[in-house]
Amino acid sequence: MTHVPMTHVNASSTSVDQTADLARGLAELMRPGDLVVLTGGLGCGKTAFTQGLGAGLGVTDNITSPTFALVQSYGGRLDLHHLDVYRLENVNEALDLGLAELLDDDAVVAIEWGDTIAPVLPQEYLEVHIEIGSEGNHRELTLHGRGNRWQSRMRAVAAVVSNVCGDAAGRGDEQGGA
Ligand SMILES: Nc1ncnc2c1ncn2[C@@H]1O[C@H](COP(=O)(O)OP(=O)(O)O)[C@@H](O)[C@H]1O
Ligand SMILES: [Mg+2]
């Protein structure tokens, strides 16, 4: 079992604070140049997650939704570039935002609705998918490690999930369960 790569980890959150705490814990695993792609519908908690991530990266400024600015950069232990590409008409506009330079910087890049610009993203990133649960403040998160850069960290991701949310359900695609 230990040799089966863990591809994704499921986490249940029951409050916005728990989602932010989870992200804050995951920030400890972040390295310069890491990319976090946030997916899921409006109001699922992508910005809330990014706020926790920023807190964990040592950002002290208030992280707001970049929906209108498209890119916001914050200084921290590791700098954070926060993008929301919901309003982009096509992937080329992402390049016009200086995406390549942002990814090349020794910072962490978090992109809300990043799945919509997948063709211009690198192959290696942590995908955070959030689904709104049946009860008001419940969210189901799936943390998917894309590429070796993240697959190698998924057990550490699972440890953070179990610390913050309890009962981390780690999964390897090959075996359908862990
Ligand atoms: N468990 C939860 N995790 C994250 N957000 C939650 C949760 N429960 C309730 N919320 C609320 O959902 C909203 C999420 O908003 P936001 O983070 O801006 O979403 P998005 O960026 O995905 O559009 C906030 O109002 C937040 O308080
Ligand atoms: Mg948002």
Report on the structure:
The chain is α/β, with parallel strands linked by helices. The chain has one domain: P-loop containing nucleotide triphosphate hydrolases (Rossmann fold). Helix content is 29%, strand content 25%. It contains six helices and eight strands. The chain has helices spanning 16-27, 46-56, 91-96, 99-104, 148-151, 154-165, and strands at 8-13, 35-39, 71-74, 80-84, 108-112, 125-132, 139-146, 169-171. It has an eight-stranded mixed sheet. Strand 3 and strand 4 form a beta hairpin. The radius of gyration is 15 Å and the shape is globular. Mean pLDDT is 91; it is low at 174-178. The structure holds adenosine-5'-diphosphate (ADP) and magnesium ion (MG).
Q: Topology, please?
A:
Blueprint: E1 8-13, H1 16-27, E2 35-39, H2 46-56, E3 71-74, E4 80-84, H3 91-96, H4 99-104, E5 108-112, E6 125-132, E7 139-146, H5 148-151, H6 154-165, E8 169-171
Parallel strand pairs: 2-5, 2-6, 4-5
Antiparallel strand pairs: 1-7, 1-8, 3-4, 6-7
Helix pairs in contact: 1-2, 1-6
The site of adenosine-5'-diphosphate has 17 residues, from helix 1 and helix 2.
